[in-house]
Amino acid sequence: MKLAKLSLAAVIAAGAFSVANATSLEDAIKGVDLSGMVRLRFYNNDHDKKGSADYNRWRGSSIFKFTIPASDTFKVHYDVLAEQNARSNGNHFTSDLTRSGLIASHLFLSYSDAGLNVIAGRIPVVTSVTAPGYGEPLGSGVVATYGLGNGFTVAGAFVDDIENINLGATGADIAGGAVLYSSDMVSAQLWGYRITNILKSDVTFSVKVKPMAGLTLAGDYATSKSDATGADNHTFWNLSAAYAANGFSGKVGYADTNKHAGAIVLTDDAALGNVTGQQDYNVANLTDASTWYARLGYQIDSKTKIAAEYHSTDDKVTPAVGAKDNDRDEYVFYGYYTYNKKLSFRAYYSVLDYDNYDNKDNNQLQLQAVYKF
Question: What's the fold here for domain 32-372?
Fold first, then answer.
């Protein structure tokens, strides 16, 4: 969306240019592009865990992305992410100050010419082991890709002090490289990483094949080794088949991890290992567990869609004395409505059921509205 005079970008531009600068306000904001989203979510959690009360939660999230062209090949990017949270506490709502306010910002320079694309600065970290989109990890560094032609692309990255990861480490740096391939029938990605203080090595491979119209076969394999002395390799693999025709869509799959504890993904929202479900969805970092999963959807009309998901996880880790295993099932029912190309709605109801622990069961309702611009 191009910005007009006296817009939000104009206010920002006014603060960025001193009186001594001869650039007019109109010229300063000329060509500036604004994109992003505003999202509102409501959650209701109803669970049986002893000592934990049921609760409601309201969550507002937004991201504003300013893209400022400096030349035909260089652009300046400034992204602002903000979050507001409130949740019930007995009969009262309280603001969750630890998860509210300005949560992150990106400021980086991009270069694009002759197949070479580079971003450098305070950047979002989007890889096979991190979450794409809002709230992804961020850090200071450089990422470059180069198109070799014939569908091949190579990539390299180094990022200092990565933030917003789930593994609890701070001050971690990530260095990695990738080879990517894409054609009408086949797409594949091979990534390799070294993550200080967390993983000595992390290698992931994903492939998708479309042998016929509507049918997609996919496979993932990943192996990693912890920085811990004497650690064994943790492995994960996943196979799935999806088919869509005449408004119906379906997907079935199976995922498995080996008996050695470890980590593959840095965030639970990473696409790798994210099979189905809303409460128990990423299985790549589980130890000695296998998961069957399925999804069925139907497009009622151009604006309305419904879907249902199911997955069953078999936790094969030997429980401690007096404990039970963590076998579990999750059922999720969805409704989607697209009001227009910018505004959409989604609702789901998820039932998480543990076979041997009734006090871990949880039912979750989520209502969501998203406006994109």
Answer: Porin (2.40.160)
